[in-house]
Amino acid sequence: MLYELVNFSDYINALNVFRYITFRTGGAIMTALLFVFLFGPIIIDLLRIKQGRGQPIREDGPQTHLAKRGTPTMGGLMILSGFTVATLLWANLSNPYVWVVLFVTLSYGAIGFYDDYMKVTKRTVAGFSGKLRLSLELAIAAVATFILMRLSTPELSTALTVPFFKNIIFDLGPLFILMGVLVIAGAGNSVNLTDGLDGLAIVPVMIAAATFGLIAYLCGNVNFARYLQIHYVPGTGELAILCGALIGAGLGFLWFNAPPAMIFMGDTGSLALGGALGTIAVATKHEIVLAIVGGLFVIETLSVIIQVVSFKLTGKRVFRMAPLHHHFEQKGWKESTVVVRFWIISVVLALIGLATLKLR
């Protein structure tokens, strides 16, 4: 919206500043942050009144979590509202990449919202049909991937690039849709599995968003892309503004989600945030880098898969409890210790992911 002020820069030179992605990214961060700060308490109060007893707590989970009963969920509404307002205000709305990411983010948020609603109203940790939920996620991801294929340059539309190697490209053809679906839906559910402790998921999401904000900016700038020898994807630079909006909204949410949490993110937020990161990774042709930068989410997901497979095949559990953060809680680690150490892992993985930009 504010980008349109560039049209008047011939009359007011100062309006040229709205041309710059860096300036608008900063504006998006501050707008989303202030929005969540201002309206967060109102949203929390409304959710507390509507939900009554708050999010159901797993009886078989760590006993320390039972003290969190009564805490409202669906905090993702705070994040999504701040993210959406900041994006619509600061992004160039004529850029189709912006709308694709918004489409996936809000669609996944709607799925997560309905799942949270079912949990709260039915007083159960299980939401609506897992098969139906997954089918909707896959369908949305497939549509988004198809559109991204059409938006990309012909030589990259169905290509899977490999980090560290500038000339290695795998042309997947029609299978690229399957790969995109796995990345987008997988990212959404991975963040969802990680969201189990106060502040655990939102900080790694912000770290990944900051990383991909830089990647999007560089991939969308022909000069930087040529210098770093990464693939130039016209138009993706605008996604840096959406990453900034995610960071700002995430910071605002963390203010209320910091231990002891006043509100939980819920599937409303975790599914949407993961879907957003996955879509940005597919758009910028850095799908494999997302697996590095979001390695914490991958590890959490693998811990669940390993636990389930091991129990079904041998009747034994590899971890004391899955996902992995609960395993360390059961070993006696304090919740704050688990959270901070997982944040450190996220920072290290983000630095490794950024290193792929130059080591080519």
Task: Report on this structure.
- With 360 residues, this protein is mostly helical.
- It has one domain.
- The protein contains 13 helices and two strands.
- The protein has helices spanning 21-51, 76-90, 96-122, 130-151, 175-194, 202-219, 222-228, 239-257, 266-283, 287-293, 295-314, 324-330, 335-355; strands at 159-161, 169-171.
- A two-stranded antiparallel sheet has the order 1-2.
- Strand 1 and strand 2 form a beta hairpin.
- The chain starts with 20 loop residues before the first helix and ends in a 5-residue tail after the last helix.
Roughly how many Å apart are the termini?
37 Å
Helix count, per DSSP?
Answer: 13
Average pLDDT taken over every residue: 90
Helices and strands: which structural class? mainly alpha
H/E element sequence: HHHHEEHHHHHHHHH
- As a whole number of angstroms, the C-alpha radius of gyration is 20 Å
Helical fraction: 55-70%
SS strand fraction? under 5%
Strand order of the largest sheet: 1-2
Number of domains: 1
Count the beta strands: 2
Largest sheet, in brief, is:
2 strands, antiparallel
Low-confidence stretches: none
> How would you describe the shape?
globular
Quick structural summary:
The chain is mainly α and about 350 residues long. About 65% of the residues lie in helices and about 0% in strands.
Keywords, separated by commas or semicolons:
64% helix; globular
Fold topology:
Blueprint: H1 21-51, H2 76-90, H3 96-122, H4 130-151, E1 159-161, E2 169-171, H5 175-194, H6 202-219, H7 222-228, H8 239-257, H9 266-283, H10 287-293, H11 295-314, H12 324-330, H13 335-355
Antiparallel strand pairs: 1-2
